[in-house]
Amino acid sequence: MGNITLTRRASQIEDPDLDDVDTPLMPEVESPLNRTFKMTSKSLMLIDVQKCFSEGTWADRFGLDEVRQIREAYDRCVDVLRLTPHIPTLVTRTPFPGPDGELDERIKSITQERGIECLSKPGNSVLHAVGFVKWMEERIRNGSRIIVMGGNTTTSCVKTSSVAIARAFRAKGLQVVVDLSMCGARATNHKKRCPDCLESYEMDYEGPLCDACVDPAVGLQSPVEAAVKEMKKNGVTVVEKFKMW
């Protein structure tokens, strides 16, 4: 039999939101449901995976129990970096002074070993980082159609940056994917809130919860859930774990 290229839309394999990419598939003998799914049209970006958020001043301010999920996200980031040496990767950092501004030691080691560029990001949006737009445009010219994002924090820089990238590069065919397993947020930000307390949170990230925050009838939503909703509203694909490496 001659060479045949099988294609199926990505949404039928991994995630219903990834419905814009036709990808070569190689059926496995064991089961027609198992597929080897390989793509070379991806880039990876980790936002502000710094010591500050896992063990530094910021973490100390809120307590280690509050940042446990951030540490778990770092573990996942390390796993993904080790899994994807073939993927063009960019890391950013917020210019905090001293040790707070340093990357997680494991991530720092991998970036140095692989020569991964680390850009200073002065604001919440990565578009403000000098060199990012040039890097992204080069990736697109070289065939990248998906950028997978993780880092800190889900409710702030990840949300703002992913939305900004989606708006800036949508016309060039770029799909932005946020992998929640690589994103960090304080434990409190996973707690559901009433609409009033959620609105207060947007103005004061340390706002308290009220008695109504236990009443499902008022429409409870956590800051993380609100961030995910905002990202999806702006065309960002949000997945629990990106598996198509």
Name a few traits of the molecule.
245 residues; alpha/beta; 20% strand; disordered N terminus
Describe the model.
There is one protein chain. This protein is 32% helix and 20% strand. The chain has helices spanning 51-54, 57-62, 68-83, 105-114, 132-141, 157-169, 195-203, 223-233, and strands at residues 6-9, 22-27, 35-37, 42-47, 89-93, 117-120, 146-152, 175-184, 237-239. The strands form two sheets. A six-stranded parallel β-sheet has the order 6-5-4-7-8-9. Helix 4 links the parallel strand 5 and strand 6 (117-120). The longest helix is centred in the N-terminal third of the chain and has 16 residues, at 68-83. The protein is globular, with a radius of gyration of 19 Å. The two termini are 29 Å apart.
Strand tally, please? 9
**What percentage of the residues does DSSP assign to strands (E)?**
15-25%
What's the overall average pLDDT, rounded? 84
**SS-derived structural category:** alpha/beta
Please provide the ordered H/E string of secondary-structure elements: EEEEHHHEHEHEHEHHE
Rg computed from alpha carbons, rounded to a whole number of angstroms: 19 Å
Question: Can you summarize this structure?
Answer:
By secondary structure, the protein is an alpha/beta fold. Helices cover 32% and strands 20% of the residues. The chain has helices spanning 51-54, 57-62, 68-83, 105-114, 132-141, 157-169, 195-203, 223-233; strands spanning 6-9, 22-27, 35-37, 42-47, 89-93, 117-120, 146-152, 175-184, 237-239.
